[in-house]
Specification:
The protein is α+β, with helices and mostly antiparallel strands. Helix content is 47%, strand content 22%. The protein has 2 domains: 129 residues, no CATH class; 110 residues, Sandwich (Immunoglobulin-like). The strands form 2 sheets. Strands 4-3-2-6-7 form a 5-stranded antiparallel β-sheet, with no helix packed on it. Helix 4 packs antiparallel against helix 5. The longest helix has 54 residues. It is flat, with a radius of gyration of 26 Å.
Length: 294
């Protein structure tokens, strides 16, 4: 909904309040309890919505989902063509097997289409709350510049409540949107360091994404190969957090921090595995190579 204001006063404030009340996300959308969402768990509530970050994630997510949709639509077209040829050749067993494959792909396409529509619905609701929140902020600023009266003070109190409600609803939607981000399967590919890596060297790699952690240890073997105690970890994407990677060299009882880097996950929402090669040291003498599949 769009709100139009021609002046400032109690009447306009009440109009805004009614509009905000009607647009309340929790009154219009049947979402699960906030406890179901990462961003809204006790001790991790984010009362500072980040519309620009949410917009970037939404665009990357929608693009990735459309890539999956196009790939499966192409597969469906291919199978449908073979289906027609098989029907003409009367190979019944192969025909029915192909028919099952087609139905399976069709079901998956319908799920993808529903997924995309749900993400778009959530983001549209988020944008409405964002605009209403901005409107409440502008109104608060305008009232603060005008002479203080009983009516203006009452309006400011009402606007503050409306601002808080919009903020809560935006955080609620951010939590709901996180449920639709899927999973990142991160594979360890090893360290690259040329002369810096010697047989017998031991390293520890620590990867963090919000509250999710992955700690693994590796060793450089005599044939320059590497062995790691873990090879893969699943991370749940987060709207507000980046990957934090820390590499430590283990020397007996001593540990030496090789480097700490951060990596944005916005480019990982795609159908193809993404290679991550990050410079652990400032000069890039040691690099870490990971692979992310969404």
């Amino acid at each position: 909904r769009s709100c139009s204001f021609t002046g400032f006063g109690t009447v306009q404030s009440r109009k805004l309040g009614k509009s905000l009340g009607r647009s309340s996300v929790r009154s219009r959308m049947s979402l699960k309890s906030p406890k179901a969402y990462n961003s809204l768990q006790k001790g991790a509530v984010i009362w500072d919505p980040k519309p620009l970050q949410v917009k970037k994630i939404f665009e990357a997510l929608k693009k990735g989902l459309n890539e999956y949709l196009e790939a499966h639509q192409a597969e469906l077209d291919y199978l449908s063509g073979r289906h027609k040829d098989t029907k003409r050749n009367s190979r019944l067993a192969f025909y029915y097997d192909l028919d099952k494959q087609i139905r399976s792909v069709e079901r998956y396409i319908r799920k993808l289409e529903f997924h995309i529509s749900k993400v778009e619905e959530l983001y549209e609701a988020y944008c409405i709350q964002c605009r209403l929140r901005d409107g409440a902020t502008n109104m608060k600023h305008a009232f603060s510049l005008s002479p203080s009266t009983k009516a203006s003070r009452e309006s400011l109190v009402e606007l503050y409540k409306n601002f808080q409600e919009c903020t809560e609803d935006m955080c609620f939607i951010e939590g709901a949107l996180e449920v639709h981000l899927g999973e990142f399967h991160v594979k360890m590919k090893g360290l690259v360091g040329f002369a810096r890596l010697c047989p017998g060297d031991q390293y520890e790699v620590f990867v963090r994404l919000g509250r999710q952690k992955w700690r693994l240890k590796g060793k450089i073997e005599t044939d320059d190969s590497q062995t790691w105690d873990e090879e893969e970890k699943i991370f749940i994407p987060n709207l507000h957090e980046k990957f934090e990677i820390k590499v430590t060299e283990l020397r007996g009882l001593a540990t030496i921090v090789v480097g700490v880097v951060t990596c944005d996950s916005i480019n990982f929402f795609t159908t193809k595995p993404q290679a991550i090669i990050v410079d652990i040291t400032e000069l890039g003498t040691i690099k870490l190579q990971l692979e992310v599949l969404w």
